[in-house]
Write a structure and sequence with these properties.
The chain is of the alpha/beta class. It has helices at 12-15, 19-27, 41-46, 57-61, 83-90, 125-128, 141-149, 163-172, 186-198, 200-213, 219-235; strands spanning 3-7, 31-36, 50-53, 67-71, 97-101, 117-120, 134-137, 154-156, 176-178. 42% of the residues lie in helices and 17% in strands. The strands form two sheets. The protein has a six-stranded parallel beta sheet, sandwiched between helices. α5 crosses α9. The protein is globular. This is UDP:flavonoid glycosyltransferase YjiC (YdhE family).
Length: 236
């Protein structure tokens, strides 16, 4: 038996399509848990999944203050490196809502949360990023690409794996601030977020890259174009 976690924005178009797969996994003997808005608890439990509410999702969608997403991805997940410094540094910022994603760890590892913070082990970025204003990340390739796909500027702090390369490119391309460390001080995270939020050039550049990435073609077509660009000069 395996354990599965589904997570979806609390909207019919997001929850309902997943329920047939939930039932199939349950019928195959697997343990299934589904996290979404409480208004979908009945449908989820009928499908055979344990229900886990996201009570703070309306805080994200309210739109009354900028949302700062803080993530360490799923590999370098020591919360002392980025999550805790970010929560501490941004705690006095009542004008911001901070959403910390632990990459699968129990959010309790973060300790008591500041009043302006919310935390979860996992939140689908495709659902969360449309409400975000800035992403604070340790520079994981996937998170950076998703942030750019949503036109979001970043504050990055990472020095393991490929992160020296990815974080340098964030700064070089003008889409964010590189703190150039694995363990930033809390005040540096705060100042980095403020800089990105107050200087519109970062968001403008992130949106420009988003538009460049979203040129209407499919990934397959882009791959063919890249391959042909290499092959044609060689053939000539």
């Amino acid at each position: 038996m395996a354990r599965f976690l589904f997570a979806a924005t609390p909207a019919t178009g997001h929850v309902t399509p997943a329920l047939p797969l939930v039932r199939a996994l349950r019928d195959a003997g697997h343990e299934v848990r589904f996290t979404t808005g409480r208004e979908f608890e009945r449908q989820v439990t009928r499908a055979g999944a344990a229900f886990t509410p996201v009570p703070w999702w309306p805080d994200v969608t309210a739109g009354d203050r900028p949302v700062v997403v803080v993530s360490q991805g799923t590999i370098a997940t020591d919360p002392a490196e980025l999550l805790r410094p970010a929560l501490t540094g941004l705690a006095p910022a009542d004008d911001l809502l901070v959403v910390a994603v632990t990459g699968g760890a129990d959010p309790a590892v973060l300790g008591p949360l500041p009043a302006n913070a919310r935390a979860a082990a996992f939140v689908p970025f495709a659902e969360l990023f449309p409400y975000a204003s800035v992403v604070v990340t340790n520079g994981g390739y996937g998170t950076i690409q998703l942030a750019l796909a949503h036109g979001l500027p970043m504050v990055v702090a990472g020095r393991t794996e490929d992160k020296p390369e990815t974080t340098a490119r964030v700064a070089w391309s003008g889409v964010g601030v590189d703190l150039r460390t694995q363990r930033p001080a809390a005040d540096r995270v705060h100042s980095g977020v403020r800089r990105v939020l107050t200087d519109p050039a970062f968001a403008a550049r992130a949106r420009a890259l988003r538009d460049e990435m979203d040129d209407g073609s499919t990934p397959e077509r882009r791959a063919v174009a890249l391959i042909e660009a290499v092959v044609r000069p060689a053939a000539g």
